[in-house]
Amino acid sequence: MKTIGLICGSLRKASYNRIIAETLPKLDDSVQFLQIEIGELPLFNEDLEVDGDPTTVTQFKQAIKQVDGLIIVSPEYNSGVPGVLKNAIDWASRPTKTSVLINKPVGIIGATPGGMGTAFAQIQLRQSLEQIHVQVLPFQKMLISQVHTKIDIEQRALTDEKTNTYLNRYLKQFIEWMHQNQ
Ligand SMILES: Cc1cc2nc3c(=O)[nH]c(=O)nc-3n(C[C@H](O)[C@H](O)[C@H](O)COP(=O)(O)O)c2cc1C
Fold it and tell me: Out of 3.40.50.10610, 3.40.190.10, 3.40.50.360, 3.90.1150.10, which CATH number does the structure's domain 3-45+53-180 have?
């Protein structure tokens, strides 16, 4: 069975994006999911690489290596990619020629209480990932606007039917494409 790694670009406990990430495993049981955490990674610094990666970085890279594909679920900060997520991507991009991200199939999902559905952050993220020779799911986009009206925070559940349908469709397309890419 294939495994999809899930990375959330928000460290907030009540993160809408984390709740969306938690929804994905409930939508499809033909694959398994692995939550990959980024909150304990140090700030990227080339000096830290000299004596070998810190343990958290090694574990992070190992987790990415072992999954067949990745779905990143992230908010947008100031029309861009949150620093914590960019930091994680920068770590995973090293060493450049043997990065665990090379050719990894990746999907991008984003949720925001705002109206633009994290469109700017997704464009930036796609650009950085393509630089690392990641395969980003082409054509499909999964942008969730006004997410605060679509989630029950107490239940940690996506309650909006339409969004659930779109998310399900996106996930199915990602899985099919991931199979074709391997
Ligand atoms: C520093 C900062 C910058 C933000 N910039 C944007 C933005 O550019 N676009 C947007 O849609 N929301 C922006 N927001 C609002 C976030 O979408 C909102 O806080 C969201 O709930 C964060 O995602 P999370 O719930 O997964 O933590 C920003 C929030 C913070 C803290």
Answer: 3.40.50.360
